[in-house]
Amino acid sequence: MKTTSSLILLFFVFIGYSQSPAITFEELPQKLAEEPRPILVKVYTTWCAVCRIQDKKIEKDEALKKLLSEKCYFLELDAESRKTIFFNNTEYRFLGSGTGGMQSLAAAMANPKDGYPTWVLLDANYKFIGKYNGLVETEQLRKLLEQQ
User: Fold this and answer.
1) Which residues of 80-107 are buried (b: 16+ CB within 10 A; e: fewer)?
2) Which of 2, 18, 53, 139 has the fewest CB atoms within 10 Å, i.e. is most exposed?
3) pLDDT profile of the chain (148 residues), mean per 10
4) From CA 53, how far away is CA 135, in angstroms rounded?
5) What distance in Å separates the CA atoms of residue 57 and residue 64, rounded to the nearest whole number?
6) Whether 53 contacts 118, CB under 8 Å
7) What is the reported pLDDT for 20?
């Protein structure tokens, strides 16, 4: 019984530790209405090794996770998600192509030829501020967020 309790405790500690500071697209309109902030979207794929490296860097940096929670609304978008997403009063669906495809919001934000992750920064009114493709060093991301 003690082993089971220890495993359960370890599981909950791991879940709490690895939790992303990201919010969902469903939460975004309400949060923006309560407190306008810039929006930072990380467009990624599940097969992207650089995306996993980026996630590990964010996971290990408590100061960065705090900034992602306090200075902007951070969202993660799987470029191959089949889920319908409502963003800025527009419905985005999966665009199927053969056995694969792409989420239409990801297609609007990122060019898959540029690689993943793609970082898209918008203001609180959904206006484009900037975009960056590839691995972002945590120090660079911290500096960007501190300026917001």
Assistant:
1) bbeeebebeeeebebeeeeeebbbbbbe
2) 2
3) 37 39 94 96 95 92 89 95 95 90 94 90 94 89 79
4) 8
5) 9
6) no
7) 66
**What pLDDT does 97 receive?**
83
Question: What is the length of the chain?
Answer: 148
Lookup: tokens for 91: 């419905």
Which structure tokens are listed for 3? 């082993």
Task: For residue 117, say if its preceding peptide bond is cis, omega within 30 degrees of 0.
Answer: yes
Structure token digits, residue 115: 């690689």
